[in-house]
Specification:
CATH class of the largest domain: Alpha Beta
CATH topology of the largest domain: Rossmann fold
Number of helices: 11
Order of helices and strands: EHEHEHEHHEHEEHEEEHEEHEHH
Bound molecules: uridine-5'-diphosphate-4-deoxy-4-fluoro-alpha-D-galactose
Strand order of the largest sheet: 3-2-1-4-5-6-11
Number of domains: 2
Helix content: 25-40%
Largest sheet: 7 strands, parallel
Shape: globular
Oligomer: single chain
Distance between the termini: 44 Å
């Protein structure tokens, strides 16, 4: 018997697909909503290859109010995990309205459903970007929210406020999960990240560079006040991240939440420099990576890593997988997909 019926928006995206696989493995009935705006429908085959089951897929634009209303009317869901959003920081600076329109409208459309079905738990993809450069490390959930560096970051901050106000007013069950840096892929190499065009994020650039699809990695900044001068992040394996969503969802389904909107950091608690990530990649894969130093990238913070105490104590969840394992899985995925089909 199904443990519950869960809607995963952005379910064919990077984190969404990994979460769908873990939900299916635990016996949930899963519906994916994805309009393929930044992924491909072949991801469904990958999910099926891992799970032995093919979830229902709705090709619907959640930012379209009438399409969303039509898709959700008469439907029962025990939970919604909302991943569908635009996420490119640089593009959001060039096209702010595209980000506000898509990321906020989709959220409002889903909350309209939850408001009329308040037993449905709601999990939101937030980001450590809400902390900006935190004054204290590691970063706890109590750290102040800093002015957003980009419209993308602002959609996460505003999104959390919209959820909190609505959840308080209407007695909803919601959790915002603030991700640090998700990396890696499913160990089967059947699903992983599908960056379109030149990867902006570190790990997909590393794997494409090592595969000969890109030139040498440019390390953005060598004079940060860190152990080796390169910036520090908290890199978390995407499968660990996916599992945290299910634990959070089950907390809501069990009515165990202590506030209408709860917030949790999802990271490993360990900071790694860019040079340490490169070393982990070379160690885990036996590949050699060519790189050179370049100027700092605008908007980058010096260091960010999570205090994971709250997730451990309250959710009973801790990241299990190492940086080396994430690099090995990212490389296996890169070898499985080869060259990207489309260039931006
Ligand atoms: N980096 C390089 N070279 C590259 C790419 C990245 O040196 O080619 C460095 C960055 O400068 C940074 C680190 O690698 O120090 C990680 O960069 P990513 O782009 O992979 O990740 P970010 O920490 O910049 O991005 C994350 C999330 C975003 C979020 C952002 C906010 O992926 O969603 O934090 O700071 F918006």
């Amino acid at each position: 018997m199904s443990k519950g019926r869960i809607l995963v928006t952005g379910g064919l995206g990077y984190i969404g697909a990994h979460t769908a696989v873990e939900l299916l493995a635990k016996g949930y009935d899963v519906v994916l909503a994805d309009n393929l705006s930044n992924t491909r429908k072949e991801v469904l085959e990958g999910i099926e290859a891992v799970s032995g089951q093919r979830p229902t897929w709705w090709n619907v634009d959640i930012a379209d109010p009438s399409a969303t209303r039509a898709a959700l009317s008469e439907q029962h869901f025990d939970g919604i995990i909302h991943f569908a959003a635009y996420k490119a920081v640089g593009e959001s600076v060039a096209e702010p309205l595209k980000y506000y329109q898509n990321n906020l409208t989709s959220l409002v459309n889903l909350l309209a459903y939850v408001q009329s079905h308040p037993s449905c738990g709601f999990i939101f993809s937030s980001s450590c970007t809400v902390y900006g450069q935190a004054d204290d490390l590691p970063i706890t959930e109590a750290a102040p929210i800093k002015p957003a560096e980009s419209p993308y970051g602002n959609t996460k901050q505003i999104g959390e406020e919209v959820i909190k106000e609505t959840a308080q007013a209407k007695g909803l069950k919601t959790i915002a999960l603030r991700y640090f840096n998700p990396i890696g892929a499913h160990h089967s190499a059947s699903i992983g990240e599908l960056p379109l065009g030149v990867p902006q994020n570190l790990v997909p650039f590393i794997t494409q560079s090592a595969a000969g699809l890109r030139g040498p990695l440019q390390i953005f900044g060598q004079d940060y006040p860190t152990a080796d001068g390169t910036a520090v992040r908290d890199y978390i394996h995407v499968v660990d991240l996916a599992l945290a969503h299910i634990v959070a969802l089950e907390r809501l389904m069990d009515n165990a939440q202590e506030a209408p909107m709860e917030v949790f950091n999802l990271g490993t608690g360990k900071g790694s420099t860019v040079l340490e990530v490169i070393q982990a990649f070379e160690r885990a894969t036996g590949q050699k990576l060519a790189w050179s130093y370049a100027p700092r990238r605008a908007g980058d913070v010096v260091a960010a890593y999570a205090d994971t105490t709250r997730a451990t104590q309250v959710l009973g969840w801790t990241a299990q997988k190492s940086l080396d394992e994430a690099m090995r899985d990212a490389w296996a995925w890169q070898l499985a997909i080869g060259a990207p089909e489309k260039e931006a």
